[in-house]
Write a structure and sequence with these properties.
Elements (H helix, E strand, L loop, with lengths): L3 E2 L13 E3 L5 E3 L1 E4 L5 H14 L3 E3 L7 H8 L8 E6 L6 H16 L4 E6 L6 H16 L3 E7 L3 H7 L9 E5 L11 H8 L2 E5 L13 H8 L5 H11 L3 E4 L4 H8 L8 H9 L22
Parallel strand pairs: 4-5, 4-11, 5-6, 6-7, 7-8, 8-9, 9-10, 10-11
Antiparallel strand pairs: 1-2, 2-3
Helix pairs in contact: 1-2, 3-4, 7-8
């Protein structure tokens, strides 16, 4: 079960951003501002505005091609005031050396000596490459260049392979989860809990699905709390102990995102959202094409 500890910053509405406790004891803010599809200028402006608004967690990745912009924004704030998550992509040949190269490039692009959380963006196509990439991550962690390491888009078969040789258990698995998928899609959330791995949701609004923003179900629940449908969709994740990353360039939307920590769903409301079957989704695009029997050393 996710434990929450004191938040790093206060939220203007009076609530606070809770931290999950990762399996190495590190506090992990339950909401982050994502930067996917932004160019450098947009990323810089969004990150700066988010940190000024009250966010304390930024999510980026090597292949977003905007880390120079993210780094420029971060340089304007005290290092202790934010948590930075970044990711490097999967590689299938010369996996250990190539992963090390990507990890070092990632730090250079951000202008940082270390990050708080480094993730592998997706599983490699062979078990050997998965294991070699994770070995590089473990060395990066041991060198103090990341305070925690984890994965993204990993499915059960990916973990089965990784755990054959892993010395460090991943701290986080970043996957797609939203209302309509149920609270434990393909068993990944409960599997993570059994291993001490926090699940973090990307696309918490289903890539902007109207059902999860203005739909009758979420909006109807929102009215009872003076909240929007989008806030209800995100609050459902928090109450299911699933961290989330959101995305916006508008201060008003950032504040609405932070306001999800200022209310609670009724039990019946949560159960209704648990049972929703639309919009559908898959926790990982990789899982549909990578079964246990497909992974070979």
């Amino acid at each position: 079960m996710v434990r929450t500890v004191a938040a790093l910053v206060g939220v203007a509405a009076g609530a606070a951003i809770p931290n999950a406790t990762l399996n190495n004891g590190l506090g992990f803010p339950m909401i982050s501002l994502g930067t996917w599809q932004y160019d450098d200028a947009t990323a810089e402006a969004a990150v700066k505005l988010a940190l000024q608004t009250g966010f304390n967690h930024i999510d980026t990745a090597h292949n977003y091609n905007n880390q120079a912009g993210v780094g420029k924004a971060l340089a304007q704030f005290e290092r202790s005031s934010y948590f930075i998550t970044t990711k490097v992509m999967s590689v299938d040949s010369d996996a250990y050396a190539q992963t090390n190269k990507l990890l070092e490039e990632d730090l250079t692009l951000l202008g940082l000596d270390s990050v708080d959380l480094m993730l592998l963006h997706s599983p490699a196509r062979s078990c050997k490459a998965i294991q070699e990439q994770w070995r590089a991550m473990e060395d990066f962690y041991a060198a103090g260049k990341a305070r925690a390491i984890g994965v993204s888009n990993y499915c059960l078969s990916s973990f089965e392979c990784l755990f054959q040789t892993a010395k460090v258990t991943p701290a986080v698995n970043q996957i797609e989860v939203h209302v309509g998928m149920g609270p434990d899609p393909t068993g990944l959330v409960s599997y993570g809990q059994s291993k001490g791995i926090i699940s973090q949701a990307y696309s918490p609004l289903g890539d902007g699905s109207s059902e999860l923003i203005t739909g009758e179900l979420v909006s109807g629940i929102g009215k009872a709390h003076n909240m929007t449908g989008a806030q209800v969709s995100m609050r459902w994740l928090i109450e299911r102990e699933i961290a989330l990353t959101t995305k916006t360039t508008k201060a008003s939307h950032m504040q609405q995102d932070l306001d999800i920590f200022g209310f609670k769903l009724a039990d019946a409301e949560g159960s209704t959202l648990d049972a929703a079957t639309s919009p559908a989704g898959k926790p990982s695009w990789a899982c549909s094409s990578l079964a246990v029997e497909d992974i070979t050393v």
